[in-house]
Every structure is written in structure tokens, then in C-alpha cells.
Design brief:
Blueprint: E1 4-9, H1 16-29, E2 34-38, H2 44-55, H3 60-84, E3 88-92, H4 95-104, H5 109-115, E4 124-128, H6 132-141, H7 152-169, E5 173-174, H8 180-191
Parallel strand pairs: 1-3, 1-4, 2-3, 4-5
Helix pairs in contact: 1-8, 2-3, 3-4, 4-7
Length: 192
């Protein structure tokens, strides 16, 4: 039996990393064989992306092409094998991040969609979205910020992009500024 592919999306500071872990734990407690993964990945391309983001200079188009290349590796080496084994995948960001961040960086949405059209789609997509001020405060508490996190106008455009996408495509949105257990319960209900 094919597994399930669940993706939590959201801007920087939204809490996707925390809630991916909590959701996977909750699914395991219910007997599911759940694994956690993320983009950028810990694979060779994802590792390169993280290193370059910390340095601070990657042209927008090149960055999104790297994310798509990392996604190709992720799909082939992690996602498809896990789904074939019947596992439940809980992923911290995926394809939607490329679309939202790419558009916020001024790239053409059709080009971004075309570059990513052949990738598998999640069975469940949930956007984790606290108020913008919450994201902003969380980002500013970080000891180090990458080139995307340090651009306030970009972060606002990304945030607005997630709101617009959720409204246009009727994607469920969970406010992660609430207490963690409340948010975790909401996400678990949506992931069933």
C-alpha cells in the first residue's frame, strides 16, 4: 500500500520545523510509520544551498533552479522509496516554497511552475501561518540569518504570497501562534 505525503508550508519563522516533528510524533503514536524530511534537504544539493544562503549571494533564478534540482534528488532518493514502502512522510516545505519565494524574488510564476510541474504532489498540504509580527519576532531571535531571512520586505512578500495562495486554492491554514499542543492537535486533525 502506498504511503502518504504530508507537507507543512509557511514563511520563515512560522514554526514548520517544530510542527513537522510534532506531527510525525503524533502519527507514530497512532501507529503510522512516519518519517520527517525537509527542503532544502540534507542531500548534496540541499547542503550546498544552505552553505550558499549563509554566504548571502545567489541570484534569484539560480537559487530556485537549485531548489528544484534538490527537489529532484529528494523525490528520487527519499520520497518515492518511502511512499513505496508505505511510510507516511511529513515534509517541512516542498514545491510551494519555490513558487512563493520565487515570486517574492520577482521571478515569473509560469516559469517557476513549469520547472516544477513534473514533481509529485502532496496528499495533504497545510500552511502554517501565525501573524506576520510573530514570524518577524521569531526570525529576529535567531543568532544567524541567511540571505532570505535578513530581507524584511522579502519576508513580507513571502507571507502575503502564502495568504494569497491559500485563499486562491482553498488550502487549510493553521495559526501557529497558539500554544504548541493546540496547534499540533489542529494539524493532526487536518492530516488524517
Amino acid at each position: 500500500m502506498r504511503g502518504r505525503f504530508i507537507v507543512l508550508e509557511g514563511p520563515d519563522g512560522s514554526g514548520t520545523t517544530t510542527h513537522v516533528s510534532l506531527l510525525a510524533d503524533a502519527l507514530r503514536a497512532q501507529g503510522e510509520d512516519a518519517i520527517v524530511t525537509q527542503e532544502p534537504t540534507t542531500g548534496p544539493i540541499g547542503t550546498f544551498i544552505r552553505q550558499e544562503l549563509s554566504k548571502g549571494v545567489i541570484p534569484a533564478a539560480a537559487l530556485q533552479m537549485l531548489f528544484s534540482a534538490d527537489r529532484a534528488w529528494h523525490v528520487e532518493d527519499v520520497l518515492l522509496p518511502a511512499l513505496e514502502e508505505g511510510k507516511t512522510i511529513v515534509c517541512d516545505r516542498y514545491l510551494l516554497s519555490t513558487l512563493i519565494y520565487g515570486q517574492a524574488l520577482g521571478l515569473d510564476s509560469e516559469w517557476l511552475e513549469h520547472m516544477n510541474k513534473n514533481f509529485i504532489r502532496p496528499d495533504t498540504l497545510i500552511i502554517v501561518l501565525p501573524p506576520f509580527e510573530t514570524c518577524f519576532k521569531r526570525i529576529n531571535k535567531r543568532e544567524t540569518k541567511d540571505m532570505l531571512e535578513s530581507q524584511d520586505a522579502l519576508q513580507r512578500a513571502v507571507y502575503d504570497g502564502y495568504i494569497a495562495y491559500a485563499e486562491k486554492h482553498s488550502i487549510p491554514v493553521v495559526d501557529s501562534s497558539a500554544e504548541k499542543t493546540v496547534v499540533a492537535s489542529q494539524l493532526l486533525n487536518l492530516a488524517k
